[in-house]
Structures are given as C-alpha cells and as structure tokens.
Amino acid sequence: MSEFNNAPIPNGGPAAPNGMSPAPIMPSPAPQGTTVCGIVGVVFGALGLVLSFIPIINNIAAIFGLVGAVLAIVAIVGTFRGKKRGKALSIVAAVLSVLAIVITLAMQSAASKALDDITGTSTSQSSSADADKDAKTDDSTKTDTKAKGEQDMEGDLTDMHVKIVSAVRSGNDYNNQPTVLVTYERTTNTDKNNSFAVLANPKVFQNGQELDTAMYLDNPEGYDSGSYLSELQPGATGTVTLGYVLKDDSEITVDVTNLLDFSDTAKVTYKFAI
Predict the structure, then answer these.
(1) Would you report the helix, strand and coil content of the chain in percent, each value rounded to 5?
(2) Which residues, at least 6 apart from 169, have a Cβ–Cβ distance to it below 8 Å?
(3) Domains plus CATH for the chain?
(4) pTM of the complete model beyond 0.70
(5) 252 forms bridges with which residues in the sheet?
(6) 173: exposed, middle or buried (C-beta count within 10 Å: 0-12, 13-18, 19+)?
(7) Sheet with strand 179-188: strands edge to edge
(8) Per-residue pLDDT tens for 96-154?
C-alpha cells in the first residue's frame, strides 16, 4: 500500500481515482506570426496619406486609404482573436488609412471651392468685359450712326475733319450779283498731301436750290481764291473760303460731304441767316 501511495504522479497532475490515468492538460494555442493584413494595411495607409495632399492624384490616395482600412479591419479582428500578432500594427494601419481618406476628401473639397471661386470671378470679369464691350459697341454704333448721318456744323468725313466756321454777306460777283462768303476749316487725315477740292464736296442751298459758286473781279475782304486748291500736309489744319451767288435774303444751308465716296452718307451741315 505504501508503494502505491508513493508512486509519482504523471504529468504533475493529481492521481486519478481507482488507478485511472489523469486527463492531460491541453496547452493554449500559441499565436501565429505577425498579421500580413496589418503590414499591407500600413503600406496602403501610408501611401494614401502621402498622396492625399496632392490634388488630382489624391483620387488614388482615397482608393489606397479604403483598401488599407479594409485590411486593417481584417488584421484587427485576427489579432484580437489571438490568431495573429500585431495589434498595434493593425491599429496604426487603420489610423493611417482613415487619415488618408479624410484628408483626401478635405483637399478635394477645398480644391473644388477654389475652382468655383476662380470660375465665378472669371465669369464675373467676362460678364463685365462683355458689358463694357457692348457699351463701347453701342457708343461706337452711335458715333458711326452720327458720322453716317448729319453732323451739326463740325464733324468727320472719310479723309478729314471739317468745321463750317461762318457764312457772311460779301461783295458782288463779276455779274454784280450779291454773294455770301462761307469759311471752312479742315484737318487732313490722309497719309499724303491733299487739297480741299480733292477731298470734299461743299454745297450751299437756298430755298432748296443749290447756289452757284461766285466769281469775283476783285476779291472781297476775307476771300482767298487759292485756298480751295491749296494742299495741306497730313494732320495739318487750314482754312478754305468760297463765295456763292445768293438768290434772295432767306437763310442758307451749307453742306459738306465726301467728294468721291458715294457709299458714305456722312455730312457736315449748318444753317445760316443772311
């Protein structure tokens, strides 16, 4: 009996009653190696975080962050169940992946807002420019319309600027008929020398009838017989005087148009009481 009691206990466990062998103690399973999903998740999360700050390219960063997040979740589940080592690594992968996604969304939102601001400013400037252009066009159209029509006393013809300075009674012509002396001022806009006779077609009307050009035996005061044919250099200003034979004492209308440009209806006109 003493021999039986002094027998060693196998495996360090208590002796089983009635001479039965004790139940073996099963050791807990040791964790496997470090989680691969966690490592790959860290790589994807880090790449996503780096690329998330770069516009346009951060579209790829969001994909990297999403893949990294999925891998991190798988790794966390595996490590908390004891199947793999690397809990800290899995958590780091999850944090990096989430940051990559969040920063990407924030950067894209900021870029979109900046683009909207630029587009809005450009549109506003374009609208303002169009409005200014339309206003200038309207002004130009009004000016052109005026230039194509009657211009009171002073205005522009095709090749010169003309002003009807005065119309005053003058001496009688060679046939002893009363005359009126009209003074014109003109500035040449051509690139070569030209005379008033070459560029302009001055006419004077009374009671709707065109008056004849006066011819004097003795030049009256203020009359320059050579001014009509004398040439001016480009940009120069000169005075032209012409006499016209009056029909009566009623008012006269002085018209100046282009000599040869029949398509241009520009006319400088003015009425004088005689």
Answers:
(1) 40, 25, 35
(2) 178, 179, 180, 181, 246, 274
(3) 34-122 (no CATH), 150-272 (2.60.40.1240)
(4) no
(5) 206, 272
(6) buried
(7) 154-156, 160-170, 179-188, 237-245
(8) 888 888 888 888 888 888 888 787 666 666 666 666 666 665 555 544 444 457 899 99
